[in-house]
Design goal:
By secondary structure, this protein is an alpha/beta fold. Helices cover about 30% and strands about 20% of the residues.
Length: about 350
Amino acid sequence: MTYLTKPRLHHPTLQTNKVGYTRRDYEGRISTLCAGCGHDSISAAIIQACWELDIEPHRVAKLSGIGCSSKTPDYFLGASHGFNTVHGRMPSVLTGANLANHDLLYLGVSGDGDSASIGLGQFAHAMRRGVRMAYIVENNGVYGLTKGQFSATADQGSKSKKGVVNSDSPVDLVAMALQLGATYVARGFSGNKAQLVPLIKGAMEHGGAAFIDVISPCVAFNNHPGSTKSYDYVREHNEAVSRIEFISPRSEITIEAAPGEVVDVRQHDGSLLRLRSLHTDYDATDRHAAMNFMQAHQARGEVVTGLLYVDPLATDLHTSLNTTTAPLNALNAPELCPGAVALAKLNASLR
Ligand SMILES: Cc1ncc(C[n+]2csc(CCOP(=O)(O)OP(=O)(O)O)c2C)c(N)n1
Ligand code: SF4
Ligand SMILES: [Mg+2]
C-alpha cells in the first residue's frame, strides 16, 4: 500500500555496523512491487551489502531509469542521494554526477528494457568509458511496468504468458559488457542471495565500471513454463562458476583455504575477492576465456552465474581524463575558471 509509511522505531538492541548503523538504516520505503517480484530480493541484497561494507548511507548516490526495477531505489538506502532519471538515461546522468563528484559511491539500477532497449547506447558508453559505478540490471526478460511485452533480453524461442514465441535474438548484456571493456562483470540470480550479496559488495568497491546482470523473475508476466527467466527455469539451469567471498581492506582476513581450489584476487583498494572455483580451470581474470566459457554454456541452455571477469587493477574515467584530486564540485570559481590569460595560452598551444 503506497500510503503506508514504515515505522522508524526499531528495537534498541539491533546490531550496528562499524559506522554505527543498523541494517534498518539502509532500508527505504515500503515496496509497492508485486509480492514475490525478484526485484525486491535484489533490494534486500543491496541493503545487506551496504550494511556489511560499513558504507555511510550519505556516501552513496543511487540512480535509475524507468521501470519496476528503476523504482526500487525508493525501497533501499533511504538516506542516500537519489535520482530517478528518464527511461534509458541513467548512465549519462550518473556519468555527469560522477565527473562532478568522484567522492561518492555510485550505484546504477536499471531494467533489461531500460538498458538493453532504449538505453543500449547509454549502457555501452558507460561501460567503454570505465565510469566507476556498480551498474545492476534487474533482468526479467520483459517490460514489467508496461505489462509484460518481450524485452530485448528475452531468449529466442521463449514463450510469453499468452503463448507467443519470441522470434528475435537476445541481447546479452554480460557478453556486451565483457566486449566493451567493463572491468568487473558478473551474473547473479535474485533467488540466490548468498551469491548476490558478495557480488554486489565486490562491485561497490571496484575501481572501475562494474556490471552485474541479475536474473530477476517477474511473477506477474514472466514466470510461466516456456519462459527462460522464471524461478523454476533459472534454478534448473543455473551453472555457477565460483563461490565468491568479498573481504574489505577493513576486515581481518582469517580463512586460508586449500591451494588450487581458491583464487584470491586483490583489488587496488586492498579488498580481496576470494573465489572458490567450481570449475577448476576457470580463470576470472581472463576476459576472452570468460566470453568463451559463457557462450559455450549458453549454447547448452545453461545460465552461468558468479563473478565472470575482474580486472583487479582497473582504473576509471577520472584516470583517463586526468581530473583533479579534489572533486570538481568542491573547486571554487577561480579554480574552475583560471581567466583570460590562461585561456589565451591554452588556445595558443592548440594552434
Ligand atoms: C521515453 C519512454 N519510452 C517508453 C516508456 C514506457 N516504459 C516505461 S517502463 C518501460 C519498460 C520497462 O522495462 P524494464 O526496464 O525491463 O523494467 P521492468 O519494469 O521490467 O523492471 C517502458 C517501455 C517511458 N516511460 N519513456
Ligand atoms: S510487474 Fe513484474 S517486474 Fe513489475 S513489480 Fe510486478 S512482478 Fe515485479
Ligand atoms: Mg524488465
